[in-house]
Write a structure and sequence with these properties.
The structure is a homodimer of 511-residue chains.
Chain A lengths: L1 H11 L12 E2 L5 E2 L10 H5 L7 H10 L12 E2 L8 H11 L11 H13 L15 H14 L10 E5 H13 L8 E7 L4 H8 L3 E6 L10 H12 L3 E8 L11 H14 L2 E5 L16 H7 L2 H4 L4 E6 L12 E7 L3 H12 L6 H10 L10 H27 L4 E2 L8 E2 L2 E2 L3 H10 L3 H13 L1 E2 L1 E2 L10 E6 L4 H24 L6
Helix pairs in contact in A: 4-5, 4-14, 6-14, 7-8, 15-18, 16-17
EC number (chains A, B): 2.6.1.2
Catalytic activity (chains A, B): L-alanine + 2-oxoglutarate = pyruvate + L-glutamate
Cofactor (chains A, B): pyridoxal 5'-phosphate
Chain lengths: 511, 511
Amino acid sequence: YHRLSIMSTRYSRGYSNNENKCLKKWNANGKMREKSLTMDTLNPQVKAVEYAVRGPIVTKAGDIERGLQQVTTTYLPIILTIHINTSCLYVQVVALCSFPELLDSSSFPEDAKQRARRILQGCGGQSLGSYSASQGVDCIRQDIAVYIEQRDKGVPADWDNIYLTTGASDGIVSILKMLVSGQGRSRSGVMIPIPQYPLYSAAISEMEAVQINYYLDEDNCWALDINELHRAYQAAKEHCHPRVICIINPGNPTGQVQSKKCIEEVLHFAYEENLFVMSDEVYQDNVYSPDCQFHSFKKVLYEMGPEYFNTVELASFHSTSKGYSGECGFRGGYMEVLNLDLEVKAQLVKLLSVRLCPPVSGQAAMDVIVNPPLPHEPSYLQFHKEKRAVLGALAEKAQMTEQILNTVPGIKCNPVQGAMYAFPRIFIPPRAVEEAMSLGISPDMMYCLRLLEETGICLVPGSGFGQREGTYHFRMTILPTTEKLKVLLEKLRDFHIKFLKEYASLEEPKR
Amino acid sequence: YHRLSIMSTRYSRGYSNNENKCLKKWNANGKMREKSLTMDTLNPQVKAVEYAVRGPIVTKAGDIERGLQQVTTTYLPIILTIHINTSCLYVQVVALCSFPELLDSSSFPEDAKQRARRILQGCGGQSLGSYSASQGVDCIRQDIAVYIEQRDKGVPADWDNIYLTTGASDGIVSILKMLVSGQGRSRSGVMIPIPQYPLYSAAISEMEAVQINYYLDEDNCWALDINELHRAYQAAKEHCHPRVICIINPGNPTGQVQSKKCIEEVLHFAYEENLFVMSDEVYQDNVYSPDCQFHSFKKVLYEMGPEYFNTVELASFHSTSKGYSGECGFRGGYMEVLNLDLEVKAQLVKLLSVRLCPPVSGQAAMDVIVNPPLPHEPSYLQFHKEKRAVLGALAEKAQMTEQILNTVPGIKCNPVQGAMYAFPRIFIPPRAVEEAMSLGISPDMMYCLRLLEETGICLVPGSGFGQREGTYHFRMTILPTTEKLKVLLEKLRDFHIKFLKEYASLEEPKR
């Protein structure tokens, strides 16, 4: 098994490298000069962090792309990064804000200039180059509040509850950080969906909180089942203090869109059990299934009446990185936090102020996202044409991905109702499972490594997101162009069939 | 004392607001619905964080500026934020990278376009809008390595050791996070200068590490005294495990520039005691005293010989936010980490990857900072004229600030050798000290609050940075224009004299 030994060597690169462990030198006084920071003395919480989205597979893919690693067969660099060919308006406004002399140029539409002028007026020194307030630029926070009110059909939004963040991740980590306390059985527990976006599990590890898994129902299009929430909560109560429930809607990596009824159930549950609610709604503009609609947790909470709306603590998160813009490099985002205790709010502002402010260009990009052009503005037609094109293509690719994957024997894919990913279940033959175990890696990791080496396609193994034991998945974005995605799905199908055949032809594993 | 009661009320606003503490509601089942997150259930580490640079004084100044708070006397909004009227080239390159269609415009110099093209080629999808690698864009890391080699007169720099960060703060927090471990007497101790930039103390509180203070020598221009390092280390060893030494050079808030000899002593000490060295060099371009010169810790380490250069673990930090550019809103920065254990390095990359990537526009700005125009390039003359003007004005203001402050009875200011701040010692009369104590605030906080209310000048009290007990200071930036700064210093002088007179005329405090 030459191939396997290669794989095993490669996988271990940088992960179990011991060559410098014994680097000790004698210093002037005859004492040993050891490294002060080794795997033995590293913060154990840092060691515990796992983050598959940028894990070994993606590192390896990057190495391959940069020619640092050779692949054994035909090489096709399809590394699925998030990038959308985005509307002009975002980048026009950011360019204008960055270099305001361009405001005199006739090559920009007037509405881009108006937006840029408004943002600059809110910035210190009228420049993106100054720090902003820690909560973000006031006028951008006001625009966000207006956006939320419109999105939620008039549910009131107070810009004092809006905080600009460095992508959504920054906000999520900040809120979690506030909620972690206690020791032993009173240590804070954080309920997260499984499968989940691994930022949650990474932050929980780093903060030494207790991760409480509630499993999404794969047989029911990854829906959230309220009985499973109760089960997970009751079981966790035995050994920790459940304080927060996190929901990702639309789901990452699972792509489901939650029904209004289900959101009501979650909010009622949070109300009854005194949980803080964190709703990750970064894919709110990415809903493709005609049967589905995005409902914000806030709007549903409002409709449940003041008894709920005035009490349940809810933080919801949005970002510039998804939607139909995909401006992830600017690291823009915001959170809206409802019903926060006033003293705690001052603590939150203090905590956020330690990082001074979120990148101001990301704040500017966020402003355009919540403030798209109106019918009378010059950018309107172009912007909405681009938006329709991006969302239309994503909807088409969501459907195509599901369909093609479901033609492959041993792959079963739920509908991609929203977000940007398919998360199909894959059958891995017992012989392959055993082989992976003997290499000390998870079977879906081995699957994805082989896929990368043999086809250049970079997918993230399901084990990085969490999955029911004995099931295997991968996450795949639907972001390449339709043509490219089709080629890619076909290559994937061929690989999968070959993989199944290869392991079926091997003798049965000994038990 | 009407004034004081106002001050006291204002100070308490948002800091001891108890009005919503009793917000309890009965839920449907007759249970109480309490807030899940209150001061009692907040993460105690978050509560412990202090961050004066954006503390109550700055919050209050912002409220005044936005008309949310009235001031009793003439109002003059001099809130000293960091903003430098910066060179075109930075913002031109960021604008070009943001909106690459501008590359066809004739209104940009060719060298700005070349830089933008090079950066874009290194970016995913040739766009600032995509995530970059977690360590940053490769070609920018390469440019940084070249810059460091030139700065350090040929000391080799490997771009594999360079990590782009979200401002310098992000890098500092990430490195500290790796180094914190152990419990009780083996808990990690972090040596920091006093006075210090409060990011350090805030991060230490948040991570529950042990803060080890070494005091800078105010009587000797805030120099670092190696005997004081030994004293602090030996004392700390009794109750924790000192693992890191942090140095800020040039100093924030103290403005001193470290001599080469002193850096050698620190590095020798770190070598002997097996400490990880963190050198915060964000003000490396801000040296004004003709007698002083910036020496990087790395260069000095190199000159101490391979025994040191190949063993001492050193992380040094730089940023787009200072220097002669002051592009703080872009949140650009980098760190170079030497002699890191290879396995630990993989852990660092993993940790950084959880936040996906630093803002790509900040990375682009960093690239221009390390890659200024060369003599044959069209932007050269303009750029260097601007650079000289900015640094010349800062040097002039550094001197003027020291001189004017030293004419005021009861204020004593060390030379502002570098960085962007004066940190003068102020005499606060015993009666004023007692009054502050009775209000439950530090005397320099009371001083700065009154200064803000009576003159609109916003300074940060020394207690936010740390100071020897019984001494009082404030931090003041030298960033306003020369004319404005002069007016400001005169107003400050008048205030100080009035303040002294007022408290001298009061009866002596009863003891």
